[in-house]
Amino acid sequence: MDLFEKRVRNLGPLGMYAKQADGYFMFPKLEGEIGNKMIFRGKERLVWSLNNYLGLANHPEVRKADAEAAARFGLAAPMGARMMSGQTVYHEQLERELAAFVNKPAAYLFNFGYQGMISVIDSMVDRNDVIVYDSEAHACIIDGMRLHIGKRFVYPHNNMENLRKGLERATKLTQQTGGGILVITEGVYGMSGDLGKIKEIVELKKEFNFRLLIDDAHGFGTMGPTGAGTDEHFGVQDGVDMYFGTFAKSMAGIGGFIASTEPIIDYLKHNMRSQIFAKSLPMPMVMGALKRLELVRTQPELRTKLWTIVEALQKGLREAGFNIGNTESPVTPVLLNGTIPEATNITVEMREKYNIFCSIVTYPVVPKGIIMLRLIPTAVHTLEDVKYTIEAFKEINAKLENGDYKNVAFADISNL
Ligand SMILES: Cc1ncc(COP(=O)(O)O)c(C=O)c1O
Questions:
Q1: Residue 248 contacts residue 51 (beta carbons within 8 Å)
Q2: At what angle do helices 262-269 and 113-124 cross, to 10 degrees?
Q3: Residues pairing with 38 in the sheet
Q4: With a 6 A CB cut-off, is 140 part of the ligand 1 pocket?
Q5: Is the CB–ligand 1 distance for residue 144 below 6 Å?
Q6: Residues with Cβ < 8 Å from 348, sequence gap 6 or more?
Q7: Is 59-298 a domain of CATH 3.40.640.10?
């Protein structure tokens, strides 16, 4: 069979909706300055779907640093991979500052968090080692594990009893193979907003010999007294052996990093294939990240503002009777009972009538019969935005409970 023919016959679980969804439910274009209000299909909407937690995307100092770095270095520099010709003092400076901020001896940069995580996992384990990981691990962790040729055990999300069983099995196995054990969890789970049980996992180190890697994409900059992450929040930084962060969220940039001991960072530097065989992070991203990190460190008021909005939003939604799950982070899921056509109609009404733009998540990401509206509060939202959104949610939920969205024809975006 012709490979192209085969692929276009079945576009995949998301691609199958491409015609109905393109430009509206999938690949929507948000235009204008990044902020609480942006333009979608020519109209201003209140946006709750960007991980711009600290509002740094359009912070004047950030914009200035980005522009100056682009003018000074261009986008090409440095040319080549770090190991060959792409090393600079600024890359090293950023690594030192990131390491110090998350309280680890050393760090190493990635061009994308996603690739970085794949490479960390790939280079840390061989066929004799065992990975034990949370069932809700992010796709980049799963992809890293796809490269692992040894055993892996999954435990149901945050289920410490099962993790213990996994560790018992992994311990027996590695006693035979002579391998080690890597446990992987997220700090903040990006869909549900609940936290990985890092404290309990660290506690298990008293009984089992393993190393702990946390993906703190959503926790870096938002969690902990200084914003150093979810392990700082729990007071267990010393128990986390490898800390992964991305610049894609609080830092409003691109790239990421891993922080750990000096010998391990040295090992990773010389073994992570995606970094050895790919071009170095461009200078504007590095200089921009240095400025962002400076602001994360020196402007705690940004985090205070973020949490003011988070608390108002989550408290308001709970008081209005909404189920927002077990979130303990800025990520705010609103769980409603309804079908996929109802979810589609809600999204259209939310956007067209209320001018609110948020992400909507349905089966298979959440169980059948559940609709999840996911809100990401940021430091650039206002209490007025929160109030307006809660009122809109109340009206929408009343209509949903009344069955009103069942009766509307399946939303046809071509008529909007
Ligand atoms: C939990 C988690 N890990 C890793 C990543 C990947 O990071 P990046 O966007 O820097 O590739 C993301 C998404 O950005 C994420 O949400």
A1: yes
A2: 100
A3: 45
A4: yes
A5: no
A6: 411, 413, 416
A7: yes
Strand partners, 159: none
Q: Which amino acid is at 30?
A: L
CA distances from 228 to 82, 139, 195, 217, 373 (A): 26, 23, 15, 11, 28
Q: Identity (one letter) of the amino acid at 309?
A: I
* d(C-alpha 352, C-alpha 46), whole Å: 11
111 three-class SS: coil
CA atoms within 13 A on the CB side of 75: 0
| Superfamily for the 3-53+300-401 domain | Aspartate Aminotransferase, domain 1 (3.90.1150.10)
Q: Spell out the residues 6+ positions from residue 392 whose beta carbon is closer than 8 angstroms to its own.
A: 350, 354, 356
Strand partners for 181:
130
Tell me the C-alpha distance between 21 and 24, whole Å.
Answer: 6
Query: What's the CA angle centered on 166, arms 161 and 170, to 5 degrees?
Result: 150
Expressed in angstroms and rounded, the spacing between residue 116 Cα and the centre of ligand 1 is 10
Could you give the 3-state DSSP secondary structure of residue 106?
strand
Q: pLDDT tens, position by position, for the chain (416 residues)?
A: 999 999 999 888 778 877 778 889 889 999 999 999 999 999 999 999 999 999 999 999 999 999 999 999 999 999 999 999 999 999 999 999 999 999 999 999 999 999 999 999 999 999 999 999 999 999 999 999 999 999 999 999 999 999 999 999 999 999 999 999 999 999 999 999 999 999 999 999 999 999 999 999 999 999 999 999 999 999 999 999 999 999 999 999 999 999 999 999 999 999 999 999 999 999 999 999 999 999 999 999 999 999 999 999 999 999 999 999 999 999 999 999 999 889 889 999 999 999 999 998 888 888 889 999 999 999 999 999 999 999 999 999 999 999 999 866 655 666 66
Separation of CA 283 and ligand 1 centre (Å)? 21
- Regarding the beta carbon of 285 and ligand 1, being less than 6 Å apart is answered no
Structure-block tokens of residue 174 = 């590695």
Specify the pTM.
Answer: 0.96
**Beta strand segments in 256-410, E:** 256-260, 332-337, 356-357, 359-361, 370-375
Cα 35 to Cα 84: distance, rounded to the nearest angstrom: 39
What residues does each domain of the chain span? 3-53+300-401, 59-298
244 in ligand 1 pocket by Cβ < 6 Å?
A: no
Tokens of 109: 């940069």
